[in-house]
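Lecture 7 notes: from sequence to structure.
We start with the chain below.
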Amino acid sequence: MKKQKRKLHKLWLRQLQKEFQNICFISNVKLRTPIFEISTARARYGSWNPASGTLRISEYLIETYSWDTTINVLKHEMAHQLCTEYYGEGDTPHGPEFQRGCEQLRVPESFRSATGDLAEEIKASNQGDVHNDAGRRVIAKVKKLLALAGSSNEHEAALAMQKAGELMDAHNLQQLELDQREGYIYQIIELKKKQIARYQKSICTILRDFFHVEVIMSKLYDPHADATFRTIDLFGREENVAIADHCYHFLENRLETLWNEHRALYKGNLRVAKASYYLGMLQGFREKLQIQQIHYQKTKETRVSSPKDLTALMKVEDQHLHSFVRQRFPFLTRRKSPGMKINKQTYEKGVETGKNIVLHGAVHEKSVNSGGLLD
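Predicted structure tokens for the same chain:
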């Protein structure tokens, strides 16, 4: 057991050094490569010792939380190193010089703890829910509407979905009109796979186009498997991210259920048939959302003085969210997905099925910060 743990520690130390170099490159800073150590501390998740040039990360942190949390703790300690080598710590360990270092290294606000001990803050964040009172009220109302969206009464279900959309739009406009630039978070959906499937990318475009979030496809190291897997990162206001996360998992599960119910109808290459049916269902669901969007577009426009004002507000929202995304991913690139073979008949049947998909179920108030944000 000890031999296996030593092997894991060696792998983690190698990965921490890679992360350190990547953070320096992205932040355009030159820091001396520290001596990395894996500590057994459970109360202190990270530390920087300027005398020995040692940066320690807790074994308990790595084993218990997402690797994204480990990276943010690493950034926190690197900010202390930056102070040592460039700014000096000043009168207090987490004073203005440290905050300046955090800005340069893009340390999330919630990881700039002034206590010197991140353990309690991280524990608190992983037990949290949406932190904004207004956001919590919106989530509660949307939860009730999504429950109604599961009604067997087609008219009641459609009306509930429409009202849920209107409620989210109204809330976002209110936040913009109040110039609420805070409250953006990100959440990581870990796929535990090396590739993102075409249908998963299609779900991402639906989330981006209809649920007030930005979606980035990224990668994250898994310390337990010593492998890097693909992720889907959701960015936006806390309540929007919570609902988009629910929508993603709902669609994942619903597509699989509907395929299992109908797979016996299809002959030949089942892999192509399944992919075609999935993409068709998502296209049908998209068309349904587009129709609902048109229905309440005029209602949404009446909430501001003119459609022109509405457009201006939405541009401001896009700019704020874009800036937040760029803090985490300063060098984003766009890539086109390669084409794939589609069974046209199966795809069209999927479209018809997708038009009848009703998004419903509870929006779980789990931590929206499972990707590593803190209170």
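Points to note: The domain at 2-125 is CATH 3.30.2010.10 (Zincin-like). The first strand starts at residue 35 and ends at 39.
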